Amino acid sequence: MPHELVIEAGRAERQYWKDLWRYRELFLILMWRDVAVQYKQTVVGILWAVLRPLLTMAAFTFVFGKVAKLPSEGGVPYPLMVFVAMLPWQLFATSLAATANSLVSNSNLVSKVYFPRIIVPAGTMGVALVDYAISFLLLGGMMAWYQYAPPLQILAAIPLTMLAAIVALGPGLILCALNVTYRDFRIIVPFITQFGLYVSPVGFSSGIVPEKWRILYECNPMVGVIDGFRWAMLGSIEFPARALCISMICAFICMLLGIKIFRKTERTFADVI
Predict the structure, then answer these.
(1) HSE value, Cβ hemisphere, 13 Å, CA-based, for 126
(2) What is the pTM of this model?
């Protein structure tokens, strides 16, 4: 039976979230379309998802481990320490870039038919999740190569993955809404991810940060996520309780703010896009 759309005064907000559930199939279709487009007509196909983290890991290991001679954590091989940190970072960076440009990339769809627009940025995270799953398998091969057994708390990687996705989605919704009106934000997003890569503990250990700067450093929400991953996957550091609390608070605030700004500007998307 076809769904009947009823527009009723005073019920717009409640109706919106009901429509979000009704359009769940569109969400899955858009997610699958983005994954197919990502790898279609590429020379090495899905190997890009393998080569990119491997090459980045090799560069970081050379610069930070060999040239700068920064220490590893708890005797963990330096490449392994870097690669574990790259799992949540790449999920964050890829998701943020995809969500920020999603509405402009789908302008033809957004301007023609009604559906909850928040489906578009949320659906673009599928590509990041596929890349993340491939990197996770690669990490398993590296741990076998280095004969490094994961600790018991490895299951904590599941909620930490969700936290990394939420940390990306909140700012992504804000940038996505702003990018519709001001295309300058299309340029800002690569700068944010590039800058964030070097102020997050991807190529180095958080242990080298002086204690007097630690709280300020942990205000970067990806610090808690990355250190949490190293605790869960390698057991090389103590549970980063304070940094994770800061990350969860930042993720919650950014998500609420992102939804509020997106919903406030959503009704104008079709006119200005």
Answers:
(1) 18
(2) 0.87
